[in-house]
Amino acid sequence: MPRRREHAPLIALVAATAALAAGAVSTGPLLFAGDRPLSDTGSVAGPGTDPYAGSGPGSESGTGPDAGTPPHRVTAPVPATSPAPFPATPSASSPRPAIPAPSASSARSFGLWLSTWSAAPTAGLTEAPPGDGPVRRTIHNVVHTSIGGDAARITLSNVFGTHPLVVDHAVVNTRPVTFRGATGVTIAAGGQVVSDPVAVPVAADADLVVTLRTPAAEGPVTAHPRGHQTSYLEDGQGVRRTTDWRYLTAVDVRGTAAAGTIAVIGDSLTAGTGSTPDTNNRWPDVLADRLHGRYAVVNAGIAGNRVLRDGTGVRASARFDRDALDVTGVRTVVIALGINDVQKHPQETDPRRIADALRSLTLRAHARGVRVVGATLMPYEGYRTWTPERNAVRERVNELIRAGGIFDSVIDFDAVARDPRRPTRLLPAYDSGDHLHLNDKGYRRLGSSVDLANLVAPVSSVDSVGQALSDRSAGQPSKSVP
Question: Concatenated DSSP letters for 14-76?
């Protein structure tokens, strides 16, 4: 199906949410009893209090850019010409993915909360205010869903902030969002909050606008830069386009069709570097399409991310719980990491250190009852950092991954993407031009190569991977994990 989503249909939503930000009346703060509570790392302005006042009287305290033409036309949230969202289950005429259907116990009549979208917080952006002192900003984060539902809730993060963050108004597709019944929330530096559920229909495989207003934002701004999707930022200088997602790190939905969430943690090859912006051709997007709404897929890729060292974003071994295991409804984690440990300075020269770090992530997932599927490292000869010695490290990491004992199941991206005639290079048809990142065709090929049946198979026992690790430490050959 066509993947492109035009921006014109989002204009009305942007305009409408900007108008609502001037003073909407919140309703239904207690729509669903027993739902996930607000994180204790934020504070909420109580009824009748000044949302600018933070944790003063009447609040609960916790511990916790591309320039472009401003939106100007009013249209529907989703283009009338866009394909309809995927059904919860495939039609009789379409091929059915070879994965278990949601059981009656997992997709109960009142629905499950699952994450339909996420973005790993990457950096604390700093920027000068357009005038003297802090400035009010309205952020229209445009995100692309994997599954739909009849209600939503959002996660806001100030993990890289050094000051409390005040959000005095939040909207999901024109519906106002509350935080423990209040329209404003203060998030402590280093903290995050989860909103109340809001009754708003969320379509699968569609763009969703989450608008946030910060009355006096002070940096650093917690953001995911270069999201390959256009959002909008309003401040004292007007409205401009941006490819950064700000403060928003997750959107959960309540639905009855999907049985769980698949979280993909990776680097730029997962984040979609080289793909066409606003077309949703990242390989996790392609995987979500193939699942036809029966499982959500969220993307925790960070360009430049490594397993063993901090770099662009904190190292994957440090962010694994936050960005993968803590994702709402996670059933499987897909790990596609390691190439930056091989090729970025300072390079990791011991392939066993990379393999052992990946194995340790599997052990942590198994402790939560989560299955782990891992990918081999793709070739990159022709990229500026390639050397025969570093390629030898990459190939040895792949040998260890294929031998078993690291992941429950393996996706051989190396075999899928390499040129059969020159296996140290990407297939030219898949190469974005820099010889490391893929183009749209290449990412579609990766997403199409994932064996759906292996995504949600039973988790291998912790003992099997643990025994493999013990064998490795003792110098014995690793045993394959079933």
Answer: HHHHHHHTTTPPP--TTSSTTPPPPPTTEEEEPTTS-GGG-SSTTEE--------PPP-----
Q: Please give the single-letter amino acid code of residue 109.
A: S
Q: Provide the 10 A C-beta neighbour count for residue 113.
A: 19
Is residue 308 within 8 A of residue 315, CB to CB? The reply is yes
- Kindly give the interhelix angle for 462-473 and 351-366, rounded to the nearest 10 degrees: 150
* β-bridge mates for residue 214, sequence order: 137
Helix (H) or strand (E) run with residue 186 in it: strand 185-187
Query: Which amino acid, one-letter code, is at 371?
Result: R
Position 123 scores a pLDDT of 81
Q: What is the pLDDT of residues 208-263, one digit of tens each?
A: 999 999 998 777 999 999 989 999 999 878 899 999 999 999 999 999 999 999 99
Which pLDDT belongs to residue 350? 98
Q: Amino acid identity, residue 438?
A: L
- State the pTM of this model: 0.78
C-alpha–C-alpha distance, residues 397 and 337, integer Å? 11
- Report how far residue 338's alpha carbon sits from residue 358's, in angstroms, rounded to the nearest whole number: 8
Quick check: bond before 482 cis, omega within 30?
A: no
- The length of the chain is 482
Phi-psi region of 392 (alpha: psi -120 to 50; beta: other; left: phi over 0): alpha
In the structure encoding, which two tokens stand for residue 264, read together?
């993909």
3-state secondary structure (DSSP) of residue 371: strand
Asked whether the beta carbons of 189 and 159 are under 8 A apart, the reply is: no
CB atoms under 10 Å from CB of 230, counted, come to 18
**pLDDT score of 388:** 98
What's the pLDDT at 252? 98
Amino acid 211 reads T
